Amino acid sequence: MIDLTTCPDVYLHREFVDFRKSINGLSMIVEANLQLSPFSTALFVFCNRRRDKLKVLYWDKTGFCLWYKRLEKAKFKWPKKHEQNAIHLTTEQFNWLLRGFDISQFKPHPSLEFTVAG
């Protein structure tokens, strides 16, 4: 079971993936294309070309887990226009993606940092 409360990072692989790939193939993509460690505490999210399936790869400290979701009629709103191969998401954005929202349209207010009140 994916526990989003303890998962600090979620990374989307922007390009579509051949869904014949399983744990070994997806972990190679994490290392080679995303240049991240598949052994981190992050979730790595992949989508197929038709955008009706997701795979989530993660390491739970005892082995790899592969979570799979298939939509019966809808399509995931997958971000297309992005410069990086790995798109960093918050767990809230990941939940939005799973529920069918376009995560590229939801942007929170920018963080502000002040040194003096007034």
TrEMBL record:
<protein>
    <submittedName>
        <fullName>Transposase</fullName>
    </submittedName>
</protein>
<dbReference type="InterPro" id="IPR008878">
    <property type="entry name" value="Transposase_IS66_Orf2"/>
</dbReference>
<dbReference type="Pfam" id="PF05717">
    <property type="entry name" value="TnpB_IS66"/>
</dbReference>
